[in-house]
Design a protein that fits this description.
This protein has a two-stranded antiparallel ribbon with strand order 1-2. The chain is an all-alpha fold. It has helices at about 10-15, 40, 50-65, 70-85, 95-100, 105-110, 115-120, 130-170, 180-195, 205-230, 235-250, 255-260, 265-285, 290-310, 315-340, 350-375, 380-395, and strands at about 1-5, 10. About 70% of the residues lie in helices and about 0% in strands. Mean pLDDT is about 80; it is low at about 1-40. The longest helix has about 45 residues, at about 130-170.
Length: about 400
């Protein structure tokens, strides 16, 4: 028993009833004996969602009064496609040569001195539909995240994510011509998730889940487009997503003016760390040993030939594997070698060595094409000629 407001005794049973003793008109708060009590109940009243949202947006406007980077980025991307169309590029399905002329990412060119393609490809799009999807995502996700991290932080995350996506593209798909802001936009999605995961208490649930829904929808749409539309690379999407997530974790702070005052230090540190990491990856890509790649493909061929000779593979299976696995990889390596030779900067002896390597690769390509055809036709004489051609290539490597 406890003392009531009028000095009389009041039981826990009485306190469950309404003020008029009828049991209606009031929400049960707690029993004296204990039990689970909602947080808002302990403080007297349930939260007002509208007030919560007003306070949330008020904090965002206080820490980032103006946003403009999102709008500038949308304008630049639209302007670039308009410029391409004026110059004669199809707004529906540009060709690979057209995209390369305007700065698309392409491993053999990017890694042999044209590193600027990592930046320019972020503003190119493979037609109006690709641009529309990406700009819809940027327009929806950009403003709120720009207020989270500020104008400079937003631009930094966008650029680092886009560059990371470009490096992922040439690492996993070096022979693919790729373009689009998707890597940077995926980075914004990842950064948004990374930021709020550490600051769930600063974001109302309605806003939090809305952001996740929009992000997931955009990711799904871009993955589908990446599978069905040429020159769009899902490796760039994932590279940007991962880099953005890391940036979001790094920049995550409480959404209040006191935390916003130190943004420039975090931005500077992120720029140094991110720039150093990207430079290290770029150097590793540029210095990847082409000869090792060539020897690796040749090793795959020898393993394939061993399986064929041991009758683990039928003739048609062996020929199909040559044409679908070995030859395309070999031809891609030859194109990389040709681009590297054209990039200049070699001594006369180095150029002579590269020319010999190119000739050896040609022998291999001719030999494998002839071998695949002869095996299918069971042409023993043709198989023998193919072996001799391959032997000439062996002698030069």
């Amino acid at each position: 028993m406890t003392s009531g407001p009028n000095g009389g005794s009041e039981s826990s049973r009485d306190r469950e009833r309404g003020e008029d003793g009828s049991g209606g008109g009031r929400i049960v708060v707690a029993r004296e004996s204990g039990g689970d009590v909602p947080a808002w109940a302990r403080h007297g009243a349930p939260p007002d969602p509208r007030r919560e949202l007003r306070e949330f947006w008020g904090r965002l406007f206080a820490i980032t009064p103006r946003i403009f980077v999102t709008h500038v980025l949308v304008g630049v991307n639209v302007a670039v496609l308009a410029w391409m169309v004026v110059r004669g590029v199809s707004p529906v399905q540009p060709t690979a040569d057209q995209l390369l002329a305007f700065g698309a990412n392409f491993g053999p060119k990017t890694t042999t001195g044209e590193w600027w393609r990592l930046a320019t490809s972020m503003f190119l799009h493979v037609g109006a539909l690709h641009l529309l999807v990406n700009m819809w995502a940027l327009w929806n996700l950009g403003p709120i995240f720009e207020r989270f991290v500020g104008n400079a932080g937003f631009a930094l995350v966008y650029v680092l994510s886009g560059l990371s996506g470009g490096l992922a593209s040439i690492a996993f798909n070096p022979e693919v011509v790729s373009a689009g802001a998707s890597g940077a936009i995926f980075g914004l999605m990842g950064a948004l998730v990374g930021f709020v995961l550490l600051r769930r208490d600063s974001v109302p649930p309605r806003i939090f889940w809305g952001m996740l829904y929009n992000g997931a929808l955009c990711i799904a749409i871009n993955v589908v487009i990446g599978v069905t539309v040429p020159f769009i690379d899902n490796a760039a999407h994932m590279g940007g997503l991962g880099a953005g997530f890391a940036c979001g974790l790094f920049l995550s702070r409480r959404l209040e003016p006191a935390a916003a005052s130190g943004r420039w230090r975090r931005n500077l540190l992120l720029a140094v760390i991110g720039g150093t990491a990207l430079a290290a990856v770029a150097v590793s890509q540029a210095e990847s040993d082409l000869v090792d790649d060539i020897l690796g493909i040749r090793g795959e061929y020898r393993a394939l030939m061993q399986r064929y000779e041991q009758r683990d593979l039928a003739a048609n299976e062996f020929a199909d594997a040559l044409e679908r696995e070995i030859l395309p990889a070999w031809q891609a390596a030859r194109r990389r070698l040709a681009v590297r030779m054209q990039s200049g900067g070699f001594t006369a002896d180095e150029l002579k060595t590269l020319a010999g390597l190119s000739m050896a690769m040609q022998f291999y390509e001719d030999g494998w094409e002839r071998l695949a055809d002869s095996v299918r036709r069971n042409d023993r004489e043709g198989i023998e000629r193919a072996r001799r051609t391959l032997g000439r290539g062996d002698g030069m490597l």
